[in-house]
Amino acid sequence: MEKPEKPKSNVEQAGEDLFKYAIDREDVKWLMENLAAEADIKRTTVEYELPILKIISVGWSLSYYLTSGPQKDELSNLFWTAINAFSKDLSTTTEMMTGQKIDYFDIVKERLDRYVKALEQHPDAQDPATVIGPAFARTCGNADDIFTFMTGSKMFMAVIARVKEYLKTIELR
User: Fold this and answer.
1) Model-level pTM?
2) What is the pLDDT of residues 68-88, one digit of tens each?
3) Does residue 132 belong to any structural domain of this protein?
């Protein structure tokens, strides 16, 4: 006889919801469809970097919007553990398909460090998106491309707004 599944705590459910949101590609597709044809950038690079920026933005939002405490630590840990497992699966699949060994989680961590460093270099920025946008364009290969800058800014702003709203609607216990 099968045991009934133990109901998830609010924190566990939030971790699952935020993970699913972080890896969902609908907004990536929309942003790619709306990236101006005049953009002086490799579109494949933008399409590769947008999901990474989305994952980072969700994780960053948890640190930024949650007050310190056990729920913040538990939720962050659940989220990043899920991202790590997802990254391992993606790395394994990519290696099987291309024959090249990659560590997607290391790439995510490196990009996170890059974006945090950019934010630290601009502590007076009124809006973090004004820092993330240019950093995203630079990561994609052309720091001066306004279309790529705006695409990264849009992703960052939309994600942090959604995570903020989500966190307001749940009760973490």
Assistant:
1) 0.92
2) 778 889 999 999 999 999 999
3) yes
